[in-house]
Amino acid sequence: MACRRVSHTLVGFITGSLLVAAPGTALAGERQEGLSRADLVTAVERSPGPTKGSAAAPIVMVEFSDFQCAYCRQFWRETLPKIEDRYIRTGKVRLVYRHLAILGEASVQAAQAASCAHEQGKFWEYHDTLFSQAGALAFTASRLKRYATELKLDKKAFTACVDSKKFAQRVEAETIIGRALGATGTPTFLINGQLLIGAYPFETFQEGLDSLLVARGQAPSGLSK
Known about the structure:
Distance between the termini: 34 Å
Number of helices: 8
Strand content: 5-15%
Order of helices and strands: EEHEEHEHHHHHEEH
Number of domains: 1
Number of strands: 7
CATH superfamily: Glutaredoxin
CATH architecture: 3-Layer(aba) Sandwich
Radius of gyration: 17 Å
Shape: globular
Helix content: 40-55%
Structural class: alpha+beta
CATH class: Alpha Beta
Low-confidence stretches: 5-32
C-alpha cells in the first residue's frame, strides 16, 4: 500500500459512520448510528488533539496524515511552512492534526508514539522529528523512544505510554473516521468541511483559503504567491 496523490474531491453526505464520544476525551472507536457527515466533521474539528492557531480562526483545516507517507512529508517540508506564516500565525486558520495510519504497522506505531508525545506537550516537535526521518528502520520501537529522549520528554512516562499502546484506540478511530469522511489517501485535508486529497503546492491552498476568507468578508493573505 502506498500513499496516493489524487485529484481534488468534494464529498457529500456520509451515513453509518464512526464517531468517538466520551465527553472531554479524545476520539475513541465506538459506532454511533444516525450520525451525519456534519457530526463527523464537527468531531474531528473540535475533539481534543494537536492543533496550531487561534481557536477563533474563521477557517479550520484538518490534516489527516501518515508519518510514512512521502507526500505527507512533502507537504510538511514545502507547503506547511508557508501556510503557517501566512494563515495560521495571522489568526486566519486553525490547523488540526489527525492520524490516518494506513501504510502498515510502522505507521500505527509512529502515530501512537506521536500521541504519547502530545500527552507531554511535545506533539509538534515530535511530528517534525518523524517527518525528518526516512527509511524502513526509522520507526522501530527503539528509534521512536530515542527521538523522545532527544526531545527531552519524560523517558519513563513515554516508554510506558508506547509499550502499553495507550493511544491505540484513538489512532484506530481517527483512521476509521478519516476513511468514513472520504480520505482515500494521505495527506487528506478537511477545510471548513470540504475535502481535498493530495499534497498540492502552496498556491492551490492559497487560492482556496483566500476564497473562503473573502466569502466571509475577511481579507485574504495579502501576500504575493
